[in-house]
């Protein structure tokens, strides 16, 4: 499962490294480091991270595509789980401690296969979500 | 801020060629699907999808299933597991695998004691009786990790079972 997702992460222009967490034996999720200079608005000095966790329980997918910037505490992502069933199967959540803003919203993806969902999420993340939500202004 | 209207997705997958995109997608096919479904999912023509899917069948990455008059493709789970086992044998020494296996088993033993349950399913079911949101979240996270470890333990155990034999075969010719 993770090899196809690792391919996608490694090919994305914003990522510098991709590793299994907690390690390459347990392989619970993938973590990519993001080049701070490729993010709008600019961030740093620490590289933000992007966690990708994907599991199937009896063919039902559960996933977490979550971006976190330790420089500001801003974090956001798409989760398919049972945490917010009132919002439907998938929700987008974000938290901006500096601006004291946080929210959960329903979300959807047109595609079904994990690498296709991940591509779409990465596009939304870097082109729309971070530029709109991570600004401290 | 509005949610995510799918029609606004840019689908900007420029850093991957068509073939790479089909290959990445195909390697996650849990459910058997037709070439036409995969083509639609990866914005490729059916002919292009078929070409790459058949290559992946040749490479033992996918299985081809004939069902009535339909040809379906899905991940070759047995081969995928063997590749995982071989990767563990090649990348880690016996001690690291043994330590990791023991640590995963200990975690599960501790969860059984802490939550007084035998399975991650039982732990999830116990959430229904709780009100405290932190406790609920903690149990969900533990159940999720437990489910993952249950799948991972047999793979690590398999890597250890034939570790020396694999090591001999992996030795480079002198």
TrEMBL record, chain A:
<protein>
    <submittedName>
        <fullName>Uncharacterized protein</fullName>
    </submittedName>
</protein>
<keyword id="KW-0614">Plasmid</keyword>
TrEMBL record, chain B:
<keyword id="KW-0614">Plasmid</keyword>
<feature type="compositionally biased region" description="Polar residues">
    <location>
        <begin position="1"/>
        <end position="15"/>
    </location>
</feature>
<dbReference type="InterPro" id="IPR055766">
    <property type="entry name" value="DUF7342"/>
</dbReference>
<feature type="region of interest" description="Disordered">
    <location>
        <begin position="1"/>
        <end position="21"/>
    </location>
</feature>
<dbReference type="Pfam" id="PF24033">
    <property type="entry name" value="DUF7342"/>
</dbReference>
<protein>
    <recommendedName>
        <fullName>ArsR family transcriptional regulator</fullName>
    </recommendedName>
</protein>
